[in-house]
Amino acid sequence: MVMFASQLISPISRSVRGKLISIRRMSAATNTDCAKSLLYKEYGEPVDVLQITTQTIEQPASDQVSVKWLLAPINPADINTIQGKYPSRPALPAVPGNEGVGEVVAVGSGVRNLGVGDKVLPNGPNFGTWRTRANYESKDVMRIPNDIGLVEASMMNVNPCTAYRMLKDFVPLKSGDTVIQNGGNSAVGQLVIQLCKIWNYKSVSVVRDRPNIQELKDQLMSLGADEVLTEEEVRKTQLFKSKKLPAPKLALNCICGQSAVEIMRHLGHGGVVVTYGGMSREPLTVPASALIFKDISLKGFWMTAWTKLNTESQERAKMFEDLAAFFRNKTLQSPPHKLVPFCDYQEAVAKALSFDGRTGVKYILDLTKS
């Protein structure tokens, strides 16, 4: 009679083998529950104050989900937060990272709105996404469709939302209206161009001159820009006086200084300037004539503040539905980016710090490669 090897093992051997299997399972469970994160205990330059730490992740409580983070972009706000220069700062010690995409890997017994395998985004600022895994209350993460690309999903919370809200909330734009912006090759700038194309607005983007300026112009035009001008060209342009394009109703400013003055100068009567950054670190100077004779209005926008006020709003839900659809049908594309393994985070934060608006690459931490 032929017998399988397992049938020849003695009861004692089976017992020993059972214990070994149990040990292996315990070891596997321990590895599964082990998470790495980037932590800073004091403010300073990221390369100096960030350190990798390891934590044990417990099974989620009844109202919690356990999230495995997959990708997390590095934004200027993240760097400024670590430096202690950003208005919104978490209590120390802290894990940096305002946005990212994760996958639910375990759910508590009382959770009904999320399941294992769902892709999720942070549902608020200062979330601490530069880690491989953590537990959260289910209300603190937001499910997104699984058919959106991971890169697009990882950066959906900040830049696309900023571009969307600035185009929706300040001027009642209609088809054919013109928007002018500086920082046109920034991540937000490229998304503004694409959203203008989707909604049939005209867009004029101002960028800094560089040796490969025509290559950059071609890239932005391929995204849907109607005109791309250097800062020197925007000072001399007859684009609006010649009626080639209607005078802009909305100007988006992330540079300040003279760059802001130049785009403001082209606004039509009653136009609005929305400032959402100050990359030049120069003040925003407003000519009196712009206020007196053209009735220009000056506004500011901070995505973090908007999110805090609108976390549960229908407006926010509609925005994410729209953006998800645009990414899904490829009418909206993510800016140029580079994935950097989590273990090589120092390279990513160093290059993010040296970003000067010319390289045009967003760095994203790949948290699956820790």
**Amino- and carboxy-terminal Cα gap:** 52 Å
CATH homologous superfamily annotation of the largest domain: Medium-chain alcohol dehydrogenases, catalytic domain
CATH structural architecture of the largest domain: Alpha-Beta Complex
Arithmetic mean pLDDT? 89
Our estimate of the beta-strand percent is: 15-25%
CATH class of the largest domain: Alpha Beta
- How much helix is in the residues? 25-40%
Biggest beta sheet summary: 7 strands, mixed
Count of beta strands: 15
Q: What's the overall geometry?
A: globular
Structural class: alpha/beta
Rounded to the nearest angstrom, the radius of gyration is 25 Å
CATH topology of the largest domain: Quinone Oxidoreductase, Chain A, domain 1
Low-pLDDT sequence parts: 1-31
- Helical run tally: 13
When the domains are counted, the total is 2
The succession of helices and strands, N to C, reads HEHEEHEEEEHHEHEHEHEHEHEHHEHE
Explain this structure.
This protein is α/β, with parallel strands linked by helices and 370 residues long. It has two domains: 34-156 and 335-366, Quinone Oxidoreductase, Chain A, domain 1 (Alpha-Beta Complex), CATH 3.90.180; 159-305, NAD(P)-binding Rossmann-like Domain (Rossmann fold). The protein contains 13 helices and 15 strands. The protein has helices spanning 11-32, 46-49, 76-83, 150-154, 159-169, 187-198, 213-223, 231-236, 257-265, 288-292, 303-310, 314-328, 345-353, and strands at 34-39, 51-56, 64-73, 101-107, 119-122, 133-137, 141-144, 178-182, 202-207, 227-230, 250-253, 272-275, 297-300, 337-341, 362-366. Strands 3, 4, 5, 6, 7, 14 and 15 form a seven-stranded mixed β-sheet that branches. A six-stranded parallel β-sheet has the order 10-9-8-11-12-13, sandwiched between helices. Strands 1-2 form a two-stranded antiparallel sheet. α5 (159-169) packs across α6 (187-198). The longest helix is centred in the N-terminal third of the chain and has 22 residues, at 11-32. It starts with 10 loop residues before the first helix and ends with a strand. Residues 1-31 have low confidence and may be disordered. Its main location: mitochondrion. Keywords: Fatty acid biosynthesis, Fatty acid metabolism, Lipid biosynthesis, Lipid metabolism, Mitochondrion, NADP, Oxidoreductase, Transit peptide. It holds the Pfam family ADH_N. Belongs to the zinc-containing alcohol dehydrogenase family. Quinone oxidoreductase subfamily. One of its GO terms (cellular component) is mitochondrion.
